[in-house]
Amino acid sequence: MPAPAYFLVRGQAPERAELAVVLAGDFYGHRILTAAGLARDGYVKKVLVSGPSGAYGRYECDLAIEYAVRHGYRAEDFIPMPHLARSTREEAGLILAELRRMGVHKFLVVTSNFHTRRTGAIYRSLARDVEFRVIAAPDENFRPEDWWKSRESRKVFFFEWNKTIAEWVGL
User: What is the pLDDT of residues 114-146, one digit of tens each?
Assistant: First the structure.
């Protein structure tokens, strides 16, 4: 049962880069804290935090940065990137345009473990002119070794596989 879940997980080891990018869609803080840790450990100097509008008229990037600051990280290490994207591909297009504008040539993309394969595929298709690595943040609702044992994990598995297949067929 773990094999199809492990297929989704394609995180890489971090390397030094100019910037880390936190993708939107994590409402538990794992992505932002993983990226903040990369900055603290000297892999990057700054963290670009993607965040669409949503909860009560607030941007997710602002909420994520506030969360990291409450966990002891410095606000000046983060760059908020509010936007209106509603898919990983749309978000990637906006992020890559901003990174090009900033002159970034190497970055780390931080996302949830289950989202790493699809993220890597999308960025490889759109970012041929820059170097990047996909960094997996842990997710309490998805452990590939026993994803079938909890309802939340089964939902994550189901939705990520649906999105992966949709990406393969161009939806």
Answer: 999 999 999 999 999 999 999 999 999 999 999
Read off the amino acid at residue 119.
Answer: T
Total number of domains constituting the chain? 1
DSSP H or E stretch at residue 45: none
> 168 in a domain, yes or no?
no
**Rounded Cα gap, residues 132 and 121, in angstroms:** 12
Per-residue model confidence as pLDDT tens digits over 6-50? 999 999 999 999 999 999 999 899 999 999 999 999 999 999 999
Alpha-carbon span 18 to 32, nearest angstrom: 17
CB 61 within 8 A of CB 92: no
- Which of 120, 72, 54 lies closest to 63, judged by CA? 54
Q: What CATH number does the domain containing 41 carry?
A: 3.40.50.620
The whole-model pTM stands at 0.95
Residues counted in the chain: 171
